[in-house]
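Hi U.,

Before I forget, here's the chain from the pilot set. I'm dumping it here mostly so it's searchable later in email.
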Amino acid sequence: MTIDIWSDFACPFCWIGKHRLQAALAQLGPAFGPVSVRWRAFQLDPEASSEPVPLRQAYAAKFGGPERTEQLLATVQAQARADGLAMDFDQGQVKVNTLQAHRLLQLAAAEGDPQAVSEALFQAHFAHGRNLADLQVLTEAGMAGGLSAARIAHWLAGEQGLPQLRAELAQGPALGITSVPTFVINQQWAVAGAQPVPAFVQALRQIAAETGLQPAQPAGSGCNDDGCSL
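Structure:
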């Protein structure tokens, strides 16, 4: 079984969904069979600047003011902490363009450990408030996945892999994916959002048994209880 995770590092539910999927796979156990997890790049705001903007300021502009922003952040933070994730929106998070973070993960998929790198990037942003467009932050995340600092710097300074990444960024919307996380299983079935662990277990069992699962259709704009959309 192959699971493609369409995700953006700016989406808190993508971190939550990652861990819920991992918990579901652990619950299913080795007898379920081999599962290949692949990360797919998606940008909620491809026009975002590489210059940092305070996250609360950006959210207030998008979601209708400071009060709504505080409600949203409190809700998602509570969900993350209930799942054991140290999400902390009081760490001075900033909004930046996530293209370089996706480029780093692209390199890790080819030469390192993409699961470790993705986790390091999510932790850097959501637990520690670090800037995901900063070379030092990206370097530390890449080294967590076995990449060398020199290789990371060379990759991010050039344009190698950029055409392929831009094609992948265009592929998600072309497939009808407008919200993340979206988990595409065996390139045929889609599960949208950071679903509860039992829902993942049920979906994976159904698909493995070839009973069929209709693709979930993302809807709406912004963030709700389990995902973020364009």
